[in-house]
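Homework-ish question, so no full write-ups if that breaks the rules, but can someone show me the predicted structure for this set?
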Amino acid sequence: MDQQLHFITFATQDLGRARGFYKDGLGWDPLMDVPGEIIFFQVAPGLVLGLFDAVKFDQDLNNQEKTLGVSGVTLSHNVGSAAEVSSTIERLAAAGATILKPAQAGAFGGIFHGHVKDPNGIIWEIAHNPGWRINSDGKVVFG
Amino acid sequence: MDQQLHFITFATQDLGRARGFYKDGLGWDPLMDVPGEIIFFQVAPGLVLGLFDAVKFDQDLNNQEKTLGVSGVTLSHNVGSAAEVSSTIERLAAAGATILKPAQAGAFGGIFHGHVKDPNGIIWEIAHNPGWRINSDGKVVFG
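A: Not a homework solution, just the prediction itself:
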């Protein structure tokens, strides 16, 4: 099995609020938008984020797992400076996110970061990580 | 805010079982492995999957959210045929995954797929999706 992720899909209680936050609030461009079912956004080369109606998410798993909400996962977006961490968090809050952790030095990894929660409970970390970069071939390098 | 995801991080109850599954079982190559803290795997161009000790995951969020486990999220890996869906699910099960949904036609999107759960409860979908492709520039195309 190749070391490759193609989709990340979240059980979404309110697709309308997801559309309002990502499309209207952040200005993101949906790859596909199926009202009442799912909204897809491309978020990396070859990678799609899917916001999937929570009832259908459960159906798709044969209802073996009843989703009470999203937990235990964080999505991270890196920016170029500490100041940009703060301004990005402000922008997310203005678009309807709840601030969980204001911009500050992180406990791990020598980063400066903060966390917000989107209208459906998905946690995003906004971080400036001086020890991280992406090479021109897409390879991530630490340190 | 660019439409870009850089890290996806999961609260992980047992890092040793995560290492055993992804590194030893699937043969994936860690980008970085900090025992007792986090294991990183690159899973797309510019994108890293982090398996983060659950206690530290909570600390990093200022303990505002107590993680009881991962829920409401699925990671998907696409393969080239229905037969490869079945064989990949068998390989994941042999490496220690639990099968949630055996390989079958999906209810949504015209795909053939199945779901497994890794040793820490992270759900993976293995899918063959004839209506999906990645262009050479990394852009995902549906239909």
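Now go work out the reasoning yourself. Hint: The radius of gyration of chain A is 16 Å.
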